[in-house]
Amino acid sequence: MAEDFSSERALFGGAIVSTFPIRFQDVSNIRQVPDHQEVFVDPSRDESLIFELLDFKHDVEDNGSAVWFLQDLATEQDAEGSVVIEQSGVIEVPGLCYANIPSVVTTAVGQMAISKGRQGREAQNIVRVYLANLRLKAVGTDVLICAYEPILINPLSESASSVGSGLTTPASQSGCMPMPEVFKLALSSFKVCDWSVFGANG
Questions:
Q1: What's the DSSP call for residue 97?
Q2: Hey, what domains does the chain have and what are their CATH numbers?
Q3: CA 129 to chain centre
Q4: CA-angle at 136, arms to 134 and 140, nearest 5°
Q5: What is the value of pTM for the model shown?
Q6: How many degrees, rounded to 5, is the angle at CA 22 between CA 16 and CA 23?
Q7: 36-43: long-range contacts (C-beta < 8 A, 24 or more apart)?
Q8: What is the mean pLDDT of residues 21-49?
Q9: Can you tell me the distance from the alpha carbon of 48 to that of 53, in angstroms, rounded to the nearest whole number?
Q10: How far apart are CA 198 and CA 154, in angstroms?
């Protein structure tokens, strides 16, 4: 079985680092990605990992914030049949403390039917989404880490040409790290090297 090697990646010009498998390629090498996002994809499995920096949502409670962002994501992607499979409580992240103000994280896992790009609903794939919301209150930023794992590929989806339609091959059978583990690794290794990326001083 092939090993799924991971390495530390520099995000947002090196201001942030996170570790995940090298099979995930930087999408910005292929197409333009918004400045507040870093997008990585494994085209052979149609799996993706997205890091996003957003202005802090003051009207969203810490408890259940990941679920709120998951549902927001589903709305944004015009998803159907969105369900929340699990969610965590609020966990403090000591390693992401700035100006003595702690950061917290919540996570959620959902499943939804979403189409690729501009494809219509008739081409929806069933996708499991793992989402972490790191709330960096000291710098007024909500960080999202989203991992997308297709469960069922629609024959009409553009993904079908690269990964085939129907149920996707489990990662373990392909010698790949399963997406829940990719997600946990990316989250646990997430580190801010330069807080000025958030407009913070020092």
A1: E
A2: 6-198 (3.40.1000.10)
A3: 8
A4: 130
A5: 0.90
A6: 130
A7: 38/11, 38/12, 40/9, 42/176, 43/162
A8: 92
A9: 17
A10: 39
